[in-house]
Amino acid sequence: MPTLTHKAFAADCNSTLTVEAESGVVTGNFVIREDPNVSGGRAVYTPDGSGTFNPANSLHRIDICITIAVADVYKIIGWTKAPDGGSNSFFMTIDNQPTTPATWTLPITTTYEPVEAPLKPTLSAGQHIISIYLREDGAEIDKIQLQGQSAPPTCNSGLTAEAESGILHAPFQIVQSSQASQGQAVQVADGFGSFGSPNLQYRVDICVTVSALATYELWGWTVAPDAGSDSFYIQLDGAPSTPAKWNLVRSTGFEANKTPLKLSLSPGQHTVSVFLREDGAQLDKIELRLTGNAANTPAPTLTPTPTATWTPAPIPTNTPVPAQGSTTGPLYVDATNPRYFSDANGQIVYLTGSHTWSNFQDNGGANPPPAFNYTAYLDFLQARNHNFFRLWTWEQSRWSVETSDDQYWFSPAPFKRTGPGVALDGLPKFDLTQFEQATFDR
């Protein structure tokens, strides 16, 4: 195989960061074809039957010269078409690096779609050569674009931001829409594919500015045309570490959809990242909505709440430590560290306590069971600086320990036991039309 080393060419070197593939030097089995539907009216491909190569062969390549004005780390996006699984990859190098060309795998599409290349080089100011080699015949490329990564995105000044104002990482692209608030939205085109787990490269990063320490809900205006195009993944400032699934209401026009995120945010800039889950879903804009702040936080309850700090806590002892303050619910997953909860003021809250085994019911070996003194239980928790107890997600009326045949009874239940008929525990069946007030009094 001929050596892969080849020199840059000074003549006809592109001066912009978006470059047509046909502007390069096209050799071997690569050919230029006319296509009125693509940028510049032409694209480059290898016809079916040209062969498949592994490793790369330098006789069959495209050398595209591009002039960099500012040294930076650059991401490379190519607009490609890959009609089937035997025509969906290239090899590539930048300035002959790496010495073994990187494999650039493409999503199978029948139209040209933006796809991020596997290389993200640090480039000095000056001319550079991007070389694309034949790997599988039938793969096509229309153009490439370099995107500098060091400069931070322009941050929107308020809580509402257009999706197209963010940094789009391929395959997300801006689309025109008369229904969108500013005439544009972002989407991944139908046919790119769907992802059961998030690919962190396929995203839009949108910056918003928060002026007040508070708790916020995040909303987005979306189009979700069908069951295969009705979800994204989403993060705020990198939390949660695995982006949350955001299910959308199906619609053919833009509708407001609440995301699963509800976070405590400090004043300053914050980044909302929306990731591809299902192609075809569109995002017009996002909005942070205030749900709680210092001005409207209810008065603290009598139960003190110890709070965590960002410095490592000492090893706890058996001696109770006075609480560092008090707060009230609801609590939210913290934006900075999802292992913690925050109150409406953004204060970290450390939960410590226990559970009662039977929610708000009495529990014991007799029927009826002895009454449980909840007031004394709360006093017990407070005296030891505990601040919560956990409830079960279901209620029961009786259970037994099979090894000893011990019977345990629970009372009261949410519904009255009037019958007719007898339940499995030997007592009258529940009447699901009548609530048992004693349960709700607790």
Secondary structure layout:
Elements: E1 18-20, E2 25-26, E3 31-34, E4 42-45, E5 61-68, E6 72-81, E7 89-94, E8 97-105, E9 113-116, E10 122-123, E11 126-134, E12 140-148, E13 160-162, E14 167-168, E15 173-176, E16 184-187, E17 203-210, E18 214-224, E19 231-236, E20 239-247, E21 251-265, E22 268-276, E23 282-293, E24 332-333, E25 341-342, E26 348-349, E27 353-355, E28 362-364, H1 374-383, E29 388-390, E30 398-401, E31 406-411, E32 415-422, E33 428-435, H2 437-441
Parallel strand pairs: 27-29
Antiparallel strand pairs: 1-12, 2-5, 3-4, 4-12, 5-11, 6-9, 6-10, 6-12, 7-8, 7-11, 13-23, 14-17, 15-16, 16-23, 17-22, 18-21, 18-23, 19-20, 19-22, 24-25, 25-26, 28-31, 30-31, 32-33
Structural summary, described in words:
- By secondary structure, the protein is mostly beta strands.
- The chain has helices at 374-383, 437-441; strands at 18-20, 25-26, 31-34, 42-45, 61-68, 72-81, 89-94, 97-105, 113-116, 122-123, 126-134, 140-148, 160-162, 167-168, 173-176, 184-187, 203-210, 214-224, 231-236, 239-247, 251-265, 268-276, 282-293, 332-333, 341-342, 348-349, 353-355, 362-364, 388-390, 398-401, 406-411, 415-422, 428-435.
- Strands 1, 3, 4, 6, 9, 10 and 12 form a seven-stranded antiparallel β-sheet that branches.
- The longest helix is centred in the last third of the chain and has 10 residues, at 374-383.
- It is elongated.
- The chain starts with 17 loop residues before the first strand and ends with a helix.
